[in-house]
Amino acid sequence: MVERALSFGSVAEAYERFRPGYPVELLELVTAYAGGPIRTALEIGAGTGKATRLFAQGGIAVTATEPDAAMLAELRKHLPANVTTVQAAFEDLPLDSSYDLVYSAAALHWTNPEGRWARMAALVRPGGVFTSFGVPIQLSDPALKEAVRAARAPYLGYDGVPSPDGTPEDRPMQWPGTELEQSEWFTDVRQAVIERRLTMSADDYIGQLSTVSAYVMLPPADRDEVFRRTLEVLPETVEIDAQITAHLARRH
Ligand SMILES: C[S@@+](CC[C@H](N)C(=O)[O-])C[C@H]1O[C@@H](n2cnc3c(N)ncnc32)[C@H](O)[C@@H]1O
Asked: Measured in angstroms, how far is the CA atom of residue 238 from the centroid of ligand 1?
């Protein structure tokens, strides 16, 4: 799992190029939930900085942390002035400062579950906000989704990341909201969805898949074959469901 968690660096440039960024509605959602000014934020697993730029654009002083040197190098190429970067995994962050906001974009599931919420609680100031959000990118058309699944099946089964605590997909509250609700340090747990549909070329869709850990971990020859077979069943442009699911909680 650690190997998979640190697999992104090899595709840092493709990650920056092909993964969709985060919309301003997300910043508005977090700001409205906070109910007061957010001056400082700590970002966990900042990657190439897609969410860093969103929160920095809101005038927040962001400390962006990321363990992977290649991802961090990509992030530093487009760095707003109010962002500080630190090369560190969540588990190694010093607990000597706390922030108005701590957030993690598509990265929390890679952190060690042991002691996760105690560490998080130490990093969020009392009354401050924690948020985690992710974007499972899916083809909108169910028939196309099935065709793509069948095309990759000989090489790769499930290409997502299973729920870290095994919460079934039909439950109203998903992970990490489930864990936050159980946590003694956080309250007012909410789950919010920002609907988003994108259109992209089949080539860009494959480019985006090339940054997804399940594909990054395949032997290169198998990966090429999966992408070749997938391209064969795709039309020139595809519709993507890229809705953002965010979990928000307030530190006691
Ligand atoms: C899917 S990428 C998300 C990057 C970025 N936050 C975004 O939304 O585009 C996951 C990131 O988590 C980082 N990561 C993996 N293990 C981590 C850990 N233990 N602590 C912090 N970040 C971690 C990876 O290096 C990678 O950059």
From this structure: 27
Does the residue 219 lie in any domain?
A: no
- Angle among Cα 26, 36, 27 to the nearest 5 degrees reads 10
Using pLDDT thresholds of 50, 70 and 90, give the confidence band for residue 211.
very high
Instruction: Kindly state the tokens that stand for 224.
Output: 């090429």
Residue 239 domain flag = no
In total, how many domains does the chain have? 1
136 Cβ partners below 8 Å, 6+ apart?
A: 160, 245
Q: How far is the CA of 48 from the centre of ligand 1 (A)?
A: 9
> Bridge-partner residues for 192, per DSSP?
246
* CATH code for the domain in which residue 76 is found: 3.40.50.150
Which residue type, as a one-letter code, is found at position 70?
Answer: A
Tell me the residue range of the domain where 77 lies.
2-135+162-196+244-251
Binding site membership of 92 for ligand 1 (Cβ less than 6 Å): no
Ligand 1 centre distance from Cα of residue 37 (Å): 26
For 150-195, write each residue's pLDDT tens digit: 999 999 999 988 999 999 999 999 999 999 999 999 999 999 999 9
**Which ligand 1 atom lies nearest to the CA of residue 111?**
19
Percent of the chain with pLDDT over 70: 98
- 91 inside domain: yes
Among 48, 52, 71, residue to substitute to test ligand 1 (most atoms within 8 Å of Cβ): 71
Backbone angles phi and psi of 21, in degrees to 5: -85, -170
Residue 202 lies in a domain: no
**Counting every residue, how long is the chain?**
252
Ligand 1, closest atom to CA 50? 9
